[in-house]
Amino acid sequence: xxxxxxxxxxxxxxxxxxxxxxxxxxxxxxxxxxxxxxxxxxxxxxxxxxxxxxxxxxxxxxxxxxxxxxxxxxxxxxxxxxxxxxxxxxxxxxxxxxxxxxxxxxxxxxxxxxxxxxx
Length: 119
Description:
About 25% of the residues lie in helices and about 25% in strands. It is α+β, with helices and mostly antiparallel strands and about 120 residues long. It has one domain (about 10-110): Histidine kinase-like ATPase, C-terminal domain (Heat Shock Protein 90). The protein has a four-stranded antiparallel sheet with strand order 1-2-4-3. A hairpin with a 6-residue loop joins strand 3 (about 100-105) and strand 4 (about 110-115). Helix 1 runs antiparallel to helix 2 (about 85-95). The two termini are about 20 Å apart. The mean pLDDT is about 85.
């Protein structure tokens, strides 16, 4: 944001959720791709997002990505338990909000966001 955004929440959990979102974005962005991190005030609190130039999300998986043990990574990319986005969802829900994922227009990447309300 252009100015400080006062928000009362659990900083260590918000930090962990942001870490999971950034790690996920780095893991799927192409080597010459981009990652964007943003935060804006909303009427209910704040929206935090991480977007990247990664591959489009399969439509049938968009609603399942925030479930436990769900991952789009192939087995050859190292061990992944499919818990990162699940943790993001739990942190968003703790802050009376929700986590979501969607493809950007024109197939230019994806955005993962958390809509949060103060504790």
